[in-house]
Amino acid sequence: MRVARTLSREHVVIDEVPAPVPGPGEALVRIRAVTLCGTDLHIWEDDYATELPIVQGHELAGTVETAPAGSGFLPGDRVAVSPIRWCGECHACGIGRINACARSSVLGCYTDGGLAELVAVPVTDLFRVPDGMPTEVAALAEPTSIAMQAVLRGRPEKDERALVLGCGPIGLLATLHLTALGVEVVATDVNPDRAAFARGFGAIEPDGRQPSLVLEATGAPSAFTTAVESVATAGRVVLVGISDRPVTLSMRTLPVKDLDLLGSRNSLRRIGEALELLAAHPEPAAALVTRRVPFAEVGDAFGLLRTELGKIAVLL
Fold first, then answer.
1. Where is the Alcohol dehydrogenase-like N-terminal domain (predicted)?
2. 3-state secondary structure at position 282
3. At the topology level of CATH, where does 2-143+267-315 sit?
4. Strands (E) located in the chain
């Protein structure tokens, strides 16, 4: 079978390797679509906590080739795959927050992932794709689950005003989820084309109303500052954007404004919920995939992430 292996900085080769042999409790899945994100770009640029070489791809969907008897899955079933692994032993896992596992791993980020014709994964990591949903849209279930986790960390309330900072895929999907929950959302971005794109996901024009919930989805220190300054007193700020860059914050800001400052990482296995959200909003879901690339050209796809407005889907 073929795999796309990132050997070194900006160097991808397609290799022929033996097909994986599923272990106990595992299914063999033929990957049909992998969508790419900013993390993939950083790995490809060798600017991430990943040891190269690696087979990238953590947003994946495909069809079942084989599955254990009694698993409920049959050959040909279309599935999205959860790539997250957790230890089950740390404090976070012990309180049910496996998304924050101290020793978590993600297929395609720290171990070989989905840019392969076949993968063997636990059947518990498979989620059925709704009828009629394009497979490349089903691959969006992983980033959608991350956006939903961030939204729910903020405890959104119907009819409140939220501000989403950053209209990349996570910000757009968070906007979609918030509006589906009845929240009024203003979404901003330094790129006016991205900000305009957010209108298709439910964002409204600002009207001066102060947000009680702010979701920061850029990882930029300036956006963090904007978040805590913009949010209403006694509001909530959720940080889902990640960066190693430091920020400076007055020790007065959080206590005086009585803010809840919350981090959000990965998701609590919300792939199934994410597929439901995407199925309920097929037009924006489909619009988010703005470029499709054949597997043979995957080496060129990563560089396109620097300028692409939406998501790039690699089709196998």
1. 23-131
2. helix
3. Quinone Oxidoreductase; Chain A, domain 1 (3.90.180)
4. 2-8, 11-16, 26-36, 54-55, 59-66, 78-81, 84-85, 105-106, 118-122, 126-128, 161-165, 184-188, 213-216, 236-239, 260-263, 289-294, 311-315
Query: CA 284, CA 251: separation in Å to the nearest integer?
Result: 41
Domain with CATH 3.40.50.720 in the chain: 145-263
The C-alpha angle 250, 99, 96, rounded to 5 degrees, equals 105
Q: What is the pLDDT of residues 38-96, one digit of tens each?
A: 999 999 999 988 899 999 999 999 999 999 999 999 999 999 999 999 999 999 999 99
**Distance of alpha carbon 280 from alpha carbon 124, whole angstroms:** 24
The CATH number of the structural domain formed by 145-263 is 3.40.50.720
Across 270-274, average pLDDT: 98
C-alpha pair distances (Å), 180 with each of 99, 278, 280: 23, 11, 9
Confidence (pTM): 0.97
| Backbone torsion region of residue 226, taken as left when φ is above 0, otherwise alpha when ψ lies between -120 and 50, otherwise beta | alpha
Tell which residue, 104, 112, 105, 18, has the closest CA to residue 60. Answer: 112
